[in-house]
Input
Amino acid sequence: MIKKAVIPAAGLGTRFLPATKAQPKEMLPIIDTPVIQYVVQECVDSGIEDILIISGKGKRSIEDHFDRNFELEARFQEKDDESLFNQLRHIENMAHIHFIRQKELNGLGDAIYHARFHCGNEPFAVLLGDTIIDSVIPATQQMIDTFEQYRQPIIAVENVPAEKVSRYGIVGGTMISKKLLQLNEMIEKPAVDKAPSTLAVAGRYILTPDIFPILEKTPRGKGNEIQLTDALRILLKHHGIMAQIIEGKRHDLGDKLEFLKTTIEFALKRDEFAKPLREFLKQIIREK
Ligand code: UTP
Output
């Protein structure tokens, strides 16, 4: 059973400046819900209620978001607005959320290394705090089911168009079923003709504590940061790792265009917005 999750959310979010100059990208809302709330919901829907968020400078609003807000609660109680009151209580009680600060931004590998005492000897899930995976069965649940069977670390991957492989971490290996790959290589942003597949790393992992002593010794790599990919490549030398093609759609909300598309896509799924938004989109496209 996987009972713990780690959500790295300390990054600078430079791709989303100036919005992220003084607020975390993980708190940007898709319509009315911060990205990180979707991520915490995925943990909860996958049966995980013990969550460590890797926080940092300028990220205090993430803590406030999952804390109680007595003033707002009192306001909605007075007004007898049960729906909003319940929404607030839901957020406050979603899970047991702990925070640790990554004091220096030394990369995703270093962020995860901060979880070593929290995770102890247990396997754990990692969910990037700026990535939503929209799916029927939560992505983390899909991976937990695989982990229960194979007991190996798992990297979530998605198929991307060939012309886009040079933007992602790409995995290679032997297909052992329609959705599972026994990994034998990982390449960061390969040229199309050097890519072993079109399967890109998708922001979700199941890891075992074996990763911590490796992270401790992983030298700084790309961007002078401690890269999780480099540590996984070392792990791969003496430990099986699997890649799982996730059933669902990945949204990297650290990217501005992806953020816009996701907002529209999610709004079109909401009853109160679908019709007027569709009409508005048709109208502005006609006018262009
Ligand atoms: P990204 O590489 O997308 O985050 O990391 P970033 O560095 O904030 O992005 P840009 O390129 O500057 O826009 C994926 C996740 O890992 C976290 C980020 O907060 C994000 O949720 N992260 C990254 C950390 O927690 N610590 C780090 O040192 C780096």
